[in-house]
Structure prediction request, 193 residues.
Amino acid sequence: MTTSPGEGSEGGFHSGAALFTFDATRRIRSWNKAAEEITGIGADEMVGRYCWEALCAHDEAGGLVCHSGCSFHRLLQERWPVSPPTLVIRTSTGTRRVRVPMITVDDGSLFAALLLEPSEAPAQKEAAQVPALTPRQRTVLGMLADGKQARRIAAELQLSELTVRNHIRAILRELGCTSQLSAVAKARRLGLV
Prediction:
């Protein structure tokens, strides 16, 4: 479904802000006029494409965020709260920095995301902060940096996999990252691993 000026998006969503929806397969289902305006890319080009393929998003340090194994999508499907990341997305003329709040809709088969202009102040403040990780989080982060997956970390630390995933979510939140890969890259830049 494409949207045109004056129409709402799928599921009865109406927003003056740039809004798109995507389904459980990660395909974009609606792309409103404001999303067209902020990206310069029309609904006819975006609807039906995988969100990761359409947005090509990176974090501000250049780490790949949007990909077929997107951690945001997994968290949304599991109904975990997702902090709005600041991402660099593709546009018709290059790229653009946006904040992307996301929500799970209905029974978890539809998701909505906004593309908002970020405030410059939070990004500067974020860069100056040193993450406060617990000793256990530092251990888990180090194991992630060694390429270990949550299941293996859980086995080695004799923790449940759910506990390890909770530590990983806390690490991502504390580092302001959107994926494990970008968290490890940022941790290396900050000398945490």
